User: What shape does this take?
Amino acid sequence: MQALVIKGGGVTTPQGFKAGVAKAGIKSQDRYDLALVVSEEPAAGAAVFTTNKFAAAPVQLSKKHLAQGGFFRGFVVNSGCANACTGEKGLVDAFQMAQTAAGVIGCSPGEFLVASTGVVGVDLPMEAVRRAIGEAGNRLSVEAGSLAAEAIMTTDTFAKEIALQIELDGQKVLLGGMAKGAGMIHPNMATMLALVTTDAAISPACLQEALRRANDASFNMVTVDGDTSTNDTVVVLANGRAGNPLLEDTANPGFELFCEALKEVCQALAKMIARDGEGATKLLEVQVVNAPGPEDARKAARAIAGSTLLKAALFGEDANWGRIICALGYSGARFEPDRVDVYLGGLLVARNGAGASFSEEEAGKLLAKEEIRIVVDLQAGDAAATAWGCDLSYEYVRINADYRS
Assistant: This one.
């Protein structure tokens, strides 16, 4: 598949999607903190959510709406308040968000998916939120897509957006996405929200399967600090504007092309999240190759990327390959220790499970870069997986020491 990345693109790049933003003043009076993304016609919908048992009210509501119907008109999201651990009132407030958005657009509340991010255990200021939803809904535009990506940010340092173009059965198909996430990031999923839009024609069932595959290879392979949130949500909306023949069979070659494109969008957003890890100075990519099976490769890559000791070593630019080996050892992956090779960039630092002679000076140069790649060869099969993470800095502690202030 050859995908063309659209410069400056985002969730409103695909045909038929618009966004609107407003300032509800949930945590700050001077920034956008509420966004709507709306399809001009009903769109097939798919979503995956947090595995945390304290699932926030918007997660519970969106799961309910997803179970009731496969087509949606939009997505409403706020930042600054997670609406999590807020009891029955939180569920009522989440529904009111969907209800208010639906009233502005002219559809039923069940045609909206809802998300929130921010501080846990705090009620939403619903009068301000309802007002903001009305404002956002009354000024929808294609141009507001980037503002929507900014409105969902919390401790993020930059807006995370991407759009790309592929061809399906001779028709141009666009996919666009936005995400937020910087801290409390760990597989299954992370403290993150993501919305992907596309003008592809695809059935809800096929879209859900495509998202499952993409999520497993992207957001479920990124880690910053080992914590998993109450609000994690990834939504995909597909409105069919591209006019390609409907993808309703997973055996269709076009479905595989769409899956690859969706995976590319999700992986790009996942890497942005890892790069923006709270206080991070380096992006880490861990590739595990020649594993006995896909799950072994995933376990190994995730354990290494998530190692606190390795993250600290990367911040200090210390080529301590022993921390890589240690994380691999407790990962649960199947392998023979005396067959494992470890590479830092292209530099061999361990061979057959033991230290290899290497230049500390060359290793130091590799670790001084903003992007660091570790390759672990298990020499036990042909499966592979990639995980993304970041280093652990003093700034991470400072940010999370006073998150609520």
Observations:
- The longest strand covers residues 34-49.
- Confidence is low (pLDDT under 50) at residues 183-190.
